[in-house]
């Protein structure tokens, strides 16, 4: 009868290879993405009103002021409405299924030409223009 003297080593190897296939990293371990809006409109213009699904209600954002929130549920679209002068625009402030996926911060610059988006607060891309009411 043959004895398996290496059986404990083989068992440890099989178990460790099996466990290495699973990740113990959870979504709860990662920080929730942050969404930031900043008013970059010309000085003499009225304030921007922003209404996002997350907080409810309307937030007034004054010149160079920032409004931010945590996109806590990373499998949900976050929509916001912005009202300025006679214009209203709806934007998707955070989209976890497209380009926003995995981004820790989404920056929004509100300008008289429309909304500009950045992930690093340096490189801005035009996103959406203002729509008249």
From TrEMBL:
InterPro entries tied to this protein: Self-incomp_S1
Keyword Signal on entry: yes
Keywords: Secreted, Self-incompatibility, Signal
Top-level taxonomic group: Eukaryota
Chief location bin: secreted
Residues spanning the signal sequence: 1-20
Subcellular localization, as worded in the UniProt entry: Secreted
GO biological process: rejection of self pollen
GO cellular component: extracellular region
Pfam families listed in its UniProt record: Self-incomp_S1 (PF05938)
Record carries keyword Secreted: yes
Family: Belongs to the plant self-incompatibility (S1) protein family.
Name the UniProt record assigns to this protein: S-protein homolog
Annotated source species: Solanum tuberosum (Potato)
């Amino acid at each position: 009868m043959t004895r398996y003297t290496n059986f404990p080593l083989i068992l440890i190897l099989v178990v460790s290879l099996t466990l290495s296939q699973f990740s113990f990293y959870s979504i709860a371990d990662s920080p929730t993405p942050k969404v930031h809006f900043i008013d970059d409109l010309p000085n003499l213009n009225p304030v921007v009103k922003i209404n996002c699904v997350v907080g409810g209600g309307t937030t007034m954002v004054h010149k160079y002021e920032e409004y931010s929130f945590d996109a806590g549920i990373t499998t949900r679209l976050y929509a916001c409405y912005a009202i300025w002068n006679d214009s209203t625009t709806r934007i998707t402030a955070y989209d976890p299924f497209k380009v926003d996926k995995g981004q820790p911060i989404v920056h929004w610059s509100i300008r008289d030409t429309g909304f500009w988006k950045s992930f690093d607060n340096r490189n801005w891309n035009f996103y959406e223009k203002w729509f008249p009411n």
